[in-house]
Amino acid sequence: MDEAHEINKKILLASGAKPETITRGVYESGHLCCTAPIGKVVDENQETKISNLFVSDASVFPSPLGMPPILTIVALSKKLSKYLLANN
């Protein structure tokens, strides 16, 4: 787990994360979340300020779910795919 934490930390730093925002909790997870919440970074259609750049993963959550997020991610992705098909 220590090695995985250090690898993830390097990835986050390389992608522009501020070192002081990287913490290590009691539980480690492969689901980074809440970095692009709906209403703050993406709009209700999951689109960023960059036109036609959409986000559909756990990063759009407003706060951690505290459980496996896969069903919520699938639901968001299905919603986004319907939006994209209707607006293409």
Features:
2 helices; mainly alpha; 88 residues
Overview of the molecule:
The protein folds into 2 domains: 1-29; 31-88, no CATH class. With 88 residues, the protein is an all-alpha fold. Helix content is 34%, strand content 0%. It is built from 2 helices and no strands.
**Overall number of domains:** 2
Helix-and-strand structural type: mainly alpha
Proportion of residues in helical segments: 25-40%
Mean pLDDT: 89
Distance between the termini: 43 Å
Query: What overall form do the CA principal axes indicate?
Result: globular
Our estimate of the beta-strand percent is under 5%
What value does the Rg take, in angstroms?
15 Å
Q: What's the tally of helices?
A: 2
Q: Low-confidence stretches at least 5 residues in length (pLDDT < 50)?
A: none
Number of strands: 0
What is the N-to-C order of secondary-structure elements (H for helix, E for strand)? Answer: HH
Summarize the biggest pleated sheet. Answer: none
Question: What does this entry show, briefly?
Answer:
With about 90 residues, the chain is mainly α. Helices cover about 35% and strands about 0% of the residues.
Show the helix and strand layout.
Blueprint: H1 2-14, H2 70-86
